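Request from the bench team (R.T.):
"We need a structural guess for the complex before ordering more zinc ion. Sequence and SMILES attached. Just send the tokens back."

Command: build protein-zinc ion structure.
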Amino acid sequence: MKESEIRPKALLQEYLRLAEIDSRQLDVTKFVKIACPACFSDNCQLHITKNNYKYDLCHDCGTLFCNPRPDGEVLDRFYDSAESSKFWSNEFFPHVAEPRREKLFKPKANRIFNIFSEKGFFPRNICDVGSGYGIFLEELKKNFEKAELYGIEPSPEMAKISNEKGIITLNASAESSAEWSHRFDLVISSEVIEHVFSPEQFVISIHRLVKSGGYALLTGLGYEGFDILTLQERSNSIFPPHHINFLSIEGFEKLFKKVGFSEVEIITPGELDIDIVLGSGLVTEFTRLISKRGDKTIAEFQDFLRRNKLSSHTWVIAKL
Ligand SMILES: [Zn+2]
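Reply to R.T.: structure attached below.
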């Protein structure tokens, strides 16, 4: 898979341009200072600045996070009204929905099915938190044929479309979904944790949805991936105030254990790190040489990153 297949360059550039304009609309004087959102250490220092937003690095667990940051209410309003958010749902996402179904959602559903089949775990019901139009649930249904599927989606428009497809969808955020407490064998959330004001409150909400003996599976961006480690503030993944949390492997582990999960397993099955670095315009001796060595070396290098938890696309599999 190539990055351009799921994020066409022109659309991505326009989205990032709008996000940068949006990021200047927020009142920086009202931002709040936080401790590390993964391990709660104060041993953190300014590491990079992007579009005038500061990101600290936690010297205890290695998490990168925007600090100070807009509070939860400001962020909720931002997501409702920002031009970049509208562009994402009205232009970007519809354009890439079908390629993403084939390239991302189908293989992801297959992988999830394989992971839990190997554990001998066959969920009777599954909830997708941040379920959007329900496309990922439709793909999951093909693997988990007997499972009942549910969605939780904060956008009223998306929740409506999802309900019309016959997927029971709660129009709420994870944090306000208490009415569905302790209901699900498996709770999934894709690419939400990097956006939220408090990863702890978010993981608590996920934990609350899971039944005793059940599992949560969260996917999102982590800091310790080759692309982000290499590109730093040049990384297109780091853009405020949309992406504000980049937990380390240790940070993910500590947070999920603190919230009450008994087993926490982390994998980084990402496929794009090296493609993103090579496509970024950054030229180093390493990028020059690996490009010259060609596709086989590049593929083997990405495989090495995957196997050693060095891709930024992170999955947390946590048992209650
Ligand atoms: Zn930390």
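Two things stood out. The chain has one domain: 3-319. Residues 213 and 320 are 5 Å apart (CA to CA).
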